[in-house]
Amino acid sequence: MALGRRLNRLLDRSLVLSTGPWLVVLAVVLGIRLSKGAPLADLYAQFSRPFWPGTAQSEWLQQASDLESQQRIALLEGELARLQDDRAQRQQSGPWITAPVISRRIEGWWQQLELGTGALAGIKPGAVVTGPGGVLGRVASVTPTTARVTLLTDPSSRVGVELQGNRGHGLLLGEGISRPRLKFLNNDVTVQPGDVVVTSKASSLFPANLIIGVVQSVDTQAGPAPEGLVQLSAPVESIDWVRVR
Amino acid sequence: MLRQPLNRVQALLLSAAVLLLLFMATPGWLRLDGMPPSWSVLWLLPWAVVEGPWSGLMAGLVLGLAVDGLHGDGLTTLPALVLLGLWWGQFRDARRPLERSTTLGLQALLGTLLLNGSLALQLFWRGEVMLLAWQFTAAQALLTALLAPMLCSLQLLFWRRVATRYGR
User: Which of A172, A170, A185, A160 is nearest to A88 (CA)?
Assistant: First the structure.
């Protein structure tokens, strides 16, 4: 009886009418949800524009990129012939776009960055994001003026990697801490702390041979194949500008 | 305090803007172990307590959709926030005003634990690994519970003032 009265009160017509504004708000926010937060992220970008990081690191990043590309040329010269018919390599086209980091959520359940440059500048979902030092992650979604990056440390991140020099192939799994876990695919790999980890040529998500980090510790007893923890070479906590392609 | 008192829509818009800013960029000194307090809980608790279960549920739904939108696909905070809004709405008709007791802190603590628990459960179902989940859940729950008696009681009084002016 009491339940019936309660239900009656809940379905009262004036109550339903008075929820009209709520339904409008609900529709708006549903729109926001379906657009993956696009208006909110754009709004936030406008709010926070006065507080964006200064340009010094951006210029330094551009200078550093010249040096880095020279080193990369030297590194890749020997492998160039084989890489030329590589599908992933062919996808790696267009110029690098420099973008400021306007929000950093690298704690808790999500490991994300918000960039202050978006679709208007030519960033597409799935693009690779790198900082000084190496790969940070991939662009998950874009709005006209912002882009959301899922970092390599996010639990949903899975990236095909290999040790530099075309040795042991493996999978880099984010686990929510600053060092993702490297699981090798086969047993006969010789890996030592200090080995450099790069993106795999077999990966369809990333261009090949981008530097990710350094193997920090190895567990050879792990089954079925060895595992290791990787120290990323790009420091997420302190990077203010990133490059996207 | 303010020369021209805010009406309810203005107050809601203002608090939404503040919530968005806090959410995207919590200052470092407001973090414990790198974790920000659960701003959704700190906003939803006083709102639901003042406005009742129906509004609490709606606010939980709206807040959940907005938060999920900001985090992209994957984990969702929606069910936990809806439940919390509904539950906290029951306190509207409580005999003793909530802001006079330590209950606010306790409610915020339980709410944060429930919210984080629902996320942990989803991660478990998806088969993904989150090390240190216990550690930052505890940090966030503690921080939220510490801030709640201060922030929530102020908001409670504020929403109550705004509500009574419109003769609910």
Answer: A160
Q: Which of residues 79-98 of B touch A (CB under 8 A)?
A: none
Domains in chain A, please, with CATH?
41-245 (2.40.10.340)
pLDDT digits (tens, 9 = 90+) for B134-145: 899 999 999 999
Residue B114 maps to which CATH number?
Answer: 1.10.1760
Q: Which of B24, B62, B132 sits opposite A25 (nearest CB)?
A: B62
* B46 phi and psi angles, rounded to 5 deg: -65, -40
Counting the structural domains of chain B, the total is: 1
Q: Which residue has the tokens 């709102």?
A: B47
Whole-number Å distance between alpha carbons of B132 and A27 = 37
Residue B76, CA distances (Å) to A24, B64, B71, B123 in order: 22, 8, 9, 10
Q: Is residue B33 part of a domain?
A: yes
Is residue B36 within 8 A of residue B146, CB to CB? The reply is no
* ipTM of this predicted structure: 0.80
Q: Is B72 on the interface with A (CB under 8 A)?
A: yes
- Quick: pLDDT tens for A145-173: 999 999 999 988 888 898 887 778 888 99
**Three-state secondary structure string covering chain B:** CCCCCCCHHHHHHHHHHHHHHHHHCCCHHHCECCECCCHHHHHHHHHHHHHCHHHHHHHHHHHHHHHHHHHCCCCCCHHHHHHHHHHHHHHHHCCCCHHHCCHHHHHHHHHHHHHHHHHHHHHHHHCCCCCCHHHHHHHHHHHHHHHHHHHHHHHHHHHHHHHHHCCC
| Chain A to chain B Cβ contacts (< 8 Å) | 106
Give the tens place of pLDDT for each residue, B4-28: 667 888 888 999 999 988 888 888 8
Residue B2: inside a domain, yes or no? no
Distances (CA, A) of A197 to A85, A217, B39, B41: 22, 13, 38, 41
In degrees, rounded to 5, the angle at the alpha carbon of residue A110 between the alpha carbons of residues A116 and A98 is: 25
B97 Cα to chain A: minimum distance (Å):
23
